[in-house]
Amino acid sequence: MKITTAIFDLDGTLLNTLGDLCDSVNCAMLRHGFPAVTEEQTRQRVGNGVRRLIERCIPENKCTEAMVDICLDEFRTAYNERMMNRTQPYDGILPLLRALKKAGVAVGVLSNKYDVAAKGLIRHYFGDLVQITHGERPDIPCKPDPTSTLALLRELGGDPATTLYIGDSAVDMQTAKNAGLTAVGVTWGFRSADELRQAGAAALADSPADLLPMFERGLLHVDSICKAFTARGFGFTYFATAAEAVSYLSDVCAGKSVSLGGSMTLKALGFPEAFRYGTAVHWHWVRKGEYFQKPDIYLSSANALSETGEIVNIDGTGNRVSATLFGPKRCIFVCGVNKLCPDLQSAVDRARNIAAPRNAQRLGVRTPCAVDGKCHDCKSPNRICRAMVVHMGPPLGMEKCEIVLIGEPLGY
After folding, report:
1. Could you tell me the pTM of the whole model?
2. Do 58 and 100 share a domain, yes or no?
């Protein structure tokens, strides 16, 4: 289901505000002879509104209501003067918001930062890429209370079923849950992936680019994807984390002869070092030009997977894809969730316009796609995309052909 509305947190999600927050807190702390706070301390203490931030920074034996009021006023004065000194959008946020605007997605921002500052920051850095911004306001409960979230959703004209709530903290995940929205945690902000998972994140994004597919196809529906592949005869296994997948693959391959295709995904997972003792490991060649064609298991990745059950790969020499078709007793395609596409055509488009150009850039080949990141269907002698293979079912004679899907972005 396509996502039509997005509600973003601000600090740690859209903007890295940590430096200016820390400097402004210290303007208040040092004025009263209190110890300065570090950026790490500030990072751990934000998320529940600026009053709570100030309470957490004042020494416990000095933390009276009157002192909090005084320091809060001093913080706000300092922050109003310096909130754009060191603050910057996270890499990839501006392209993401531009893409969402182009796609017609309604975008709002909800922050526990006081309202004037939240509106000023969003207006300065993002202009009309954000339709509505609300910060902390009098007589309206802070997050994780759902009141402000539901009010913003109504203003945006959104439907809870097609809305993502995107943030970097447990407070954000709880806010989404309380409002009946789907929570997406971002790992580039102020909190860890583990904290976000434990707080109920339905999905995680390691970069802003990882969010775009969620808007295009909605969140992952593992059961329906599993049915699409198993109906075609493929094996299918899903793991929420890379660590779980590594353990499974190491167990499956233990004591077997295993060959690996060239794969940034497998490299990111730590293979071949992650194999257990007793696994006979080869790359997809023995010596240059001499390929190991008949292992017990051939591990590869894919350039794209369709949610209708097809596997798409592009290759230059052909040795990587040939081993997925003939020779091994068993073939396992290991893919991050970023490889999923709604249908076969979009999977082909992904292979041509995302995977192939990025591989060309990685390898330093002189092709048009390496320059601008788009397929030109060129006739360059350096072209590395010379064969496209679409698996519509397991090859005849292969004992098992399996997809291992991992709920994290891996490779490209």
Report:
1. 0.62
2. no
